[in-house]
Amino acid sequence: MRERKRIRLKRYDYSQDGYYFVTICAENREEWFGKVEKGEMILNQYGKIANQCWDDLPNHYLNCSLDSFVVMMNHIHGIIVILNKDVTIVGNGLKPFPTHGLSEMIRGFKTFSSRKINEEIKDDNKFQWQKSFYDHVIRNETELYRIRDYIKNNPLKWDLDRENPLSKNFNLDHDRYWKEIYESV
């Protein structure tokens, strides 16, 4: 069996307080969620389900809140905020509710959304997410604003997006724009 590339930071606790930018792609980058028209993402029924499942995450994970988010044709971008100080609520027979890390929240999102999307599919096609996800620990306010801007403008830049399999206009300027977001400190 092929060994998977390690993409998480070594010795980093992904359940600690912080802002986390994530990108999750549909399997094989298939376009499941709608279309971009005139720089605006128009969600179909599956895109709306993905959006609803994302919005519902804080109801399942008490240390989770959400920031910027967009559903694209074949992937999602979002910022998850983990804040543990408000989760000392006691429940379940007087035991504190557990806090969860980023990977568990993404697992939950993928499970909830896949199940609901597949309930809507009437043929033999089945929706799946890619096995892993991309994450970036947001380290400062400048980076947070840049990533929020990237998420907000993602539909406007779809023609240039490397996730767009039909992009004929892919160019280095857009690649530099993307790279700049991750290299800022």
Structural notes for this entry:
With 185 residues, the chain is of the alpha+beta class. It has a domain at 18-140: 2-Layer Sandwich (Alpha-Beta Plaits). It contains four helices and eight strands, in the order βββαββββαβαα. A four-stranded antiparallel beta sheet has the order 4-5-1-8, with helices on both faces. A hairpin with a 3-residue loop joins strand 6 (90-91) and strand 7 (95-96). Helix 1 (45-60) packs antiparallel against helix 2. The chain is globular and about 45 Å long. The model has no long low-confidence stretch (mean pLDDT 84).
Kindly summarize this structure in a few lines.
The protein has four helices and eight strands, in the order βββαββββαβαα. The protein is α+β, with helices and mostly antiparallel strands and 185 residues long. Strand 4 and strand 5 (75-82) form a beta hairpin.
Helices and strands in order:
Layout: E1 18-25, E2 34-37, E3 40-43, H1 45-60, E4 64-71, E5 75-82, E6 90-91, E7 95-96, H2 102-120, E8 134-138, H3 141-153, H4 172-183
Antiparallel strand pairs: 1-5, 1-8, 2-3, 4-5, 6-7
Provide keyphrases for this structure:
8 strands; 22% strand; Alpha-Beta Plaits; 185 residues; two-stranded antiparallel ribbon
Helix content: 25-40%
Helical stretch tally: 4
Strand content: 15-25%
Shape: globular
CATH class of the domain at 18-140: Alpha Beta
Which ranges are low-confidence, i.e. pLDDT below 50, for 5 or more consecutive residues? none
> What structural class do helix, strand and pairing data support?
alpha+beta
The CATH superfamily of the domain at 18-140 is Transposase IS200-like
- SSE pattern: EEEHEEEEHEHH
